[in-house]
């Protein structure tokens, strides 16, 4: 009986070690994966489409902007409901091209959400999205 008990004990210890390694690897894998969300704002023939990527202390937005008539794009980073940084393009009229932003998020944990929105030449809100570090965007500013 002693021999059998020892083998079972070794097997349980080995299984626990393997399980512990699997759980230990999960956070490291999650840290390596970059948090990103796809942005898509369309208003008539105008659009702003691209990707927001979160890092430790900033949010980068790589996107294409097409302005039909005159439009402007804004981006604002938040930690919860606290505003961290705010940027905007100039007013574009009947043109298109890249319109990238880097938003500072210099707080512990960085930004967890951003607003991205489009206005007309008079800064009247047209359409926008709230994007989350969890990897998704929803229509409107929340």
Give the structure's gist in a few sentences.
Keywords: Signal. This protein has 142 residues and is an alpha+beta fold.
Q: How would you describe what is shown here?
A:
This protein is 22% helix and 55% strand. The protein has 142 residues and is α+β, with helices and mostly antiparallel strands. Strands 1, 2, 3, 4, 5, 6, 7, 8 and 9 form a nine-stranded antiparallel sheet that branches. The radius of gyration is 23 Å and the shape is elongated. Residues 1-24 form the signal peptide. Keywords: Signal.
Q: Helix and strand layout, with pairings?
A:
Layout: H1 2-32, E1 35-43, E2 46-54, E3 58-79, E4 82-88, E5 92-98, E6 101-104, E7 113-120, E8 125-132, E9 136-139
Antiparallel strand pairs: 1-2, 2-3, 3-4, 3-5, 3-6, 3-7, 7-8, 8-9
Keywords: Signal
Signal peptide: 1-24
Structural key phrases:
single chain, 9-stranded antiparallel β-sheet, alpha+beta, 9 strands, elongated, Immunoglobulin-like, 142 residues
State the CATH class of the largest domain. Answer: Mainly Beta
Task: Supply Rg.
Answer: 23 Å
Annotated CATH architecture of the largest domain: Sandwich
Average residue pLDDT: 84
The total beta strand count reads: 9
* Strand proportion: over 45%
CATH topology-level name of the largest domain:
Immunoglobulin-like
